[in-house]
Amino acid sequence: MQTELSRKLGIEHAVFGFTPFPAVAAAISRAGGFGVLGAVRYTAPDDLARDLDWLDAHTGGRPYGLDVVMPARTVEGPKDQTLTEADVEAMIPEEHRRFVRDTLAAHRVPELAEGEASGWRITGWLEQVARTQLDVAFDHPIRLLANALGSPPADVVARAHDQDILVAALAGSARHARKHRQAGIDIVVAQGYEAGGHTGEIATMVLTPEIVEAVDPLPVLAAGGIGSGPQVAAALTLGAQGVWLGSVWLTTTEAELHSPALTRKLLAAGSGDTVRSRALTGKPARQLRTAWTDAWDDPAGPGTLPMPLQGLLVAEAVSRIQKYEVEPLLGTPVGQIVGRMTTERSVQAVVDDLTRGFEQAVDRINRIAGRSGQS
Amino acid sequence: MQTELSRKLGIEHAVFGFTPFPAVAAAISRAGGFGVLGAVRYTAPDDLARDLDWLDAHTGGRPYGLDVVMPARTVEGPKDQTLTEADVEAMIPEEHRRFVRDTLAAHRVPELAEGEASGWRITGWLEQVARTQLDVAFDHPIRLLANALGSPPADVVARAHDQDILVAALAGSARHARKHRQAGIDIVVAQGYEAGGHTGEIATMVLTPEIVEAVDPLPVLAAGGIGSGPQVAAALTLGAQGVWLGSVWLTTTEAELHSPALTRKLLAAGSGDTVRSRALTGKPARQLRTAWTDAWDDPAGPGTLPMPLQGLLVAEAVSRIQKYEVEPLLGTPVGQIVGRMTTERSVQAVVDDLTRGFEQAVDRINRIAGRSGQS
């Protein structure tokens, strides 16, 4: 499974795997794919440096990448003023804080211990946090830098190119993809409606070829709804030069969810058990549908706040829900492909399944095309 | 492009085309695909008989099918009582009738002339109307009978099978597809989120293989987001035995929209210009987003009524909007593929483009799979 892009990166399969877990990213690269570590959960630059050092030692010399989140514009502060986390916290209405407390109380969610920090923070959404992450990243031999929201700033693109690092950005529409191209990025990730995390409304089947044509000749990775070999083959048939998978790694044996209850929920969920909700970050993101997303999406409630207010508002609550595994509220970003995630497997087993299924799908389409002698 | 199903039906391409226009259905069959005429707009059985007679004379002996709408359950009437259209009309609240009048008045939509009947009725949704359509259909050499909502009743399936007619049903989830199989149908149409008309939430990329596995070995047609050769190839790669296309025919030269303004809107619309709304029938159906759908989807309005009340409520209004081409309100069911419909072409040109694009896509995936010597 080789495309111009996979050859350029020197990888065996055009399979890009996004994950918040270093062990998963390393295993993806070792299996011949391209592991991309999500940086948003790192608030301390030292933690990111430590994990990138670990990656350098465990990818077997294979290339890997880093995904940061730098929304082009988040909170409108007074001109030229850098907003701190405290500034943003102060913008959160008391009504919303009360709704968080009441919803947690209704489900008897215990408090964190005194002095125990929220393990799940969303301060990575702030540009200044992303920039400290970038300083760390540029000290490591990353081959790809992806930005999950909006185009990265021009100086970041220039710095990456100076170090021969490819820059990727996610897009949910052809218009966004064209903006990325104008910003000088190298790869567009076409993120379909069915994908986990932040998505637009246009499904992968329509979005992929639309973005391929919009940014030609830039390479496009297809994301959303991909978790089997035939789906990989379909995405590449649509003109993508690779696939970008996030959800399928969540139930691998290398994943560090640290929550047996959440793993059980993921393994049990069907393709109809996700929802595109603003509950997590303030922008629509696909995730497991839970009593928590229902509460935020309920017209009778206060509704969600814009990014990054919503993320800050719910950070501690999400940590408590996760720590105590309060099942009705327990969720995670994940795509509609969750219906296919029914057993825990190693990353290598997932990649083997993808590549074997890809070959079988190519056999199938050749038979349909009357080229059966060729497969 | 041959699958087990296309061979069984004796067609050249595994491309099934759904359309409300006999001229389009005939042209699809003549071009080597399989034309399926939508019956919902026929209220008089004689009109349907006339158009099926015409089809018999104009398909050049190629097979064609008919699509009816028989929702399993629509309005709850007293037990064993057959509901008439008048019964259903009486269930519509005055508040909703006023909202229709006010919305039309706000956009200065003229009245129909005295005695002029609404050309666009939705009474085909009622089972008794669908049954008179079936009596007509069974007098014609149709090769396929499709049901757009729910499984067809057992006696209809039996009667079709007696006449060697294949029965198809649309499904938006694996659960619906399994119900269809239990009802004895022969083909499942997997209708993805991005499709025009009634759809569920699961996108084609995820839904197609899920339904293929759920009803194996029944053949599955993929619907939703398909309007180019690479999309046809992708759908077949996912395990479908054919594709079911509806939207792409709306802007063919054979289509009888009788509305230059609507054709212009379709040609100008992008993939993000549709919405999944209950405005048309009371069930979620993808269509052009207009001031009309916005009014019904506005939380400040009265909201929509359940099927078939909503369809009856808006039937005359939709006729007026269409007749007078009131542009802000003018819409039609159509899928996200509308973004690719940018020029008026003949049905033959569309089919040629699909088959040529399919071959190129197969070449592409063979190159990626390292089988380039074989294409």
TrEMBL record, chains A, B:
Enzyme Commission identifier(s): 1.13.12.-
Gene3D superfamilies referenced in this protein's UniProt entry, alphabetically: Aldolase class I
Recorded superkingdom: Bacteria
GO MF, any single term: oxidoreductase activity
SUPFAM superfamilies named among the record's database cross-references: Inosine monophosphate dehydrogenase (IMPDH)
CDD domains associated with the record: NPD_like
Keyword annotations of the record: Flavoprotein, FMN, Oxidoreductase
Coiled coil: none
Name of the molecule in the record: NAD(P)H-dependent flavin oxidoreductase
Organism expressing this protein natively: Streptomyces cinerochromogenes
